[in-house]
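Lab meeting notes turned into a lecture example. A postdoc, R.K., suggested we walk through two folding results consecutively so the class can see how the record format repeats. The first protein's sequence and structure tokens come next.
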Amino acid sequence: MIERPYYVQRLERYRDTGLAKVLTGMRRTGKSAILRAYMERLVRSGVDEDAIVTLNLEIAEHASLCDAGHLLAYLRQRKDPARTTYVCVDEAQEVRDIGSVVYALLEDGGFDIYLTGSHTRLITQGLSSILAGRYVEIAVFPYSFDEYVNAMGHNGQKADVRRLFGRYLQNGGLPSGTTLQLDEYALHEYLDGVYHTVLRRDVSASLGKEDPVLLDAIIRLLINSIGQPVSANGISRALSSTGRTCSDDTVARYLDALDEAHVFYRVRRFDLKSHAILKTQERFYLADLGFRNLALGTQGALLQGLLENVVYLELRRRHTEVYVGKHYARHICFVTHDAQGTAYYQVATSVLDESALNDALAPLRAERDNYPKTLLTLDEVGIASHEGIAQHNVIDWLVESR
């Protein structure tokens, strides 16, 4: 695996601030490795190894510490009053009342706390109400394409980067998977293991007793709908057309479970006229495109959807909030909001045809504000401008930090 300085630096930014640091994301995206790299950095900076407490709550050795009272007592026992104690808890959602534990430690003082979680219940049920304003969430994703190129050991030559991009779209960017990229059989087995572990542990945690056949059918429909509006009713009707009856409420539960386990990311629409966040006609993007190949194979993949998926994840790495933009009947692929301001991104496979270019630019041109507007395509045109709308090759844009 490669170093991931972006995440380590974000942890460092909040060191000893009195805020709990929470790494969230799907399993096997590298959360634990990031924490280890950060702890090594602490040691190099002069922190004594004895001042670092590391726990993985999914291993048998630490099973008793999944009880909030036992965990709190253990960590207080490990505290050294003469120095800061650094606490790293992996898969912290396994503690039902983890928020109360963290709150007590922060009140005690002398602790700097780091957590990881593979399920949103760590935030929604554990921290958000008890620790409001006292934690920072850092979303962890599979390798960006830039990280993927680095992990594959390539020097960034243009021809190599273009070739790697096709492999990235097909195989995804799970960190451990990059070591298996040259062995398709081993990579398939690895992705299959991760996929079913996530479904068994995290999706099932939301659903309780699920119907695995129904879950598989919904996942396949979502994968085939990447980049398209999705609704529980639409999926229910699609299932009915195959002879399976399923209520909208049941489909909604399954969609929620997949979102909560970070298998898919639910993207809301943002009405650019009213500035309201809409709760209908959402889009769902996969946490890792390797799962698409696993579930459906390489045939029939719509390149537009795959490109949007990659761009969405990259925007999530770069910006705090990412939405689908709605302007009357038209839509802009993505609108970002954060401290840097607002920006618009449109994604298209190619706009060499004049009509395709006009279709892609029309929603951007309709916005009369001065926010940055970017068109991302696979066309090899360098950097172009259309009345202030920048056009970039999407692959170059993904690796521009190299």
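The second example is placed directly after the first for contrast:
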Amino acid sequence: MIDDAGYAKRMNTLPKHVVSRTLEKLEWNNSHLMEGYIQKEASKLKPLDLWKRPTRKRPNAS
């Protein structure tokens, strides 16, 4: 399979936050294991702007 669009490269560069009670080592590129109190750990992600989505302009409704 050829990835002409570069999706694999893009996915490998994006941060991945994994929640697990059993994993000790992550094999994926740019992956981070979230342990302990998950709600507290997840709240740390928001300041990193990982949750921001690009906004699209909507056409004016007439």
